[in-house]
Amino acid sequence: MLLLLLLLLLLLLLLLLLLLLLLLLLLLLLLLLILLLLLLLLILLLLLLLLLLLLLLLLLLLLLLLLHHHYTTTTTTPPPPFTVTKNVFTVTQLLLLQLIAHIGGHACFTNSPCFVRISFFNGGGIICVSFMHLFFKCFNDFYGFIFKFVCFFFLAYLSTTCSW
Q1: Is the distance from CB of 116 to CB of 163 less than 8 angstroms?
Q2: What are 68-127's pLDDT values in tens digits?
């Protein structure tokens, strides 16, 4: 009888241990499910961030198209050429002006480009004549203002003739 009672107690302990293992397994599955949900939430947040980035790029594209429409439909007459004569000229300033003009040419995208001719003088003699293909529709364009600012910046050092 005592042996039967011990066997029953042992069986009860085994069942309790099995139940405990089952609870532990369920807890582990619950933890795994929580981790999976967190991973899905992270993926959703990344997709939302990507969507916001795409919307921002779309807004930037729309702004560029609006600027393109404005600069290609505005009809204004360009001003006459302006000339200022100075004697000092350095190659570094010429290269910097060429670089700015090149960047300006790539940055603007009007479909009616103008050609800006810049002649550099030193003591009355022409050192270099530069033909820069700048995509300015006219002087009132945004990049035209930038180029006039650049021209006036360099006028303190060299003789520049800017013709539109």
Answers
A1: yes
A2: 666 666 655 554 454 444 444 456 665 666 666 555 544 443 333 333 334 444 444 333
Provide the residue ranges of all domains of the chain, joining segments of one domain with +.
82-163
Three-state secondary structure readout of the chain:
CHHHHHHHHHHHHHHHHHHHHHHHHHHHHHHHHHHHHHHHHHHHHHHHHHHHHHHHHHHHHHHHHHHHHHHHHCCCCCCCCEEECCCCCCHHHHHHHHHHHHHHHHHCCCCCCCCEEEEEEECCEEEEEEEECCCCCCCCCHHHHHHHHHHHHHHCCCEEEEEC
Count other Cβ atoms within 10 Å, centred on residue 54. Answer: 10
Distance CA 74, CA 111 (A): 12
List the end-to-end C-alpha distance of the chain, in Å, as a whole number.
116
Mean pLDDT, rounded, for 121-140:
37
